[in-house]
Fold this sequence. Notes:
By secondary structure, the protein is α+β, with helices and mostly antiparallel strands. The protein has helices at residues 3-22, 24-30, 77-90, 131-137; strands at residues 39-44, 52-55, 61-64, 68-71, 99-105, 110-115, 121-124, 150-156, 159-166, 177-180. The protein is 26% helix and 29% strand.
Amino acid sequence: MKPDSIVKTSLIYLAIFSFILSCPVFSAAQDFKIGTGDRLTISVYGHDDLSLTVRVSDEGSIKVPFLGNIQAAGVTAADLSKKLAAEYVREEYLVNPQITVFIDEYKSRKASILGEVSKPGRYELDEDTTVMILVTMASGYTAKASKKYANIIRTDGEKKEIRERVPLDERVLPGDVVVIPESFF
């Protein structure tokens, strides 16, 4: 290939990649924070030997070639990409690394559902899981369930918030405990 065609091809791939990342589904997924147990695919453009698939440890770190343990839990995939690029530059392994991080599996993204559902338990969440979707994952309501609202117990660090009479289209967050109450009628 000629150098001009390599540059053109690279620009086309970059434009396609930029378009994909600007789509709402992908940008919403980028907002999620990486957690322990998540599986990540890290791609280093032009350096297949540095690309890898790795699971985040219980301590929240990952092992990266030449860099060792890097803290990954608590940051977004985009933030981790920037962090890895900065570390490769700081350690003088790469000059201008182009790194992407994709979260393949969200082990840390689970919520519990209790109360008047057929199969109470913990379920893995997608980026758009609502209370109604979680009820469906739990095989639906029991005969005694209130089908108009739910209660959510949400923990943010040390702070616990109990949200009552939450609509069924409310988004469920990792760590939430959704309680489907019994109907009075």
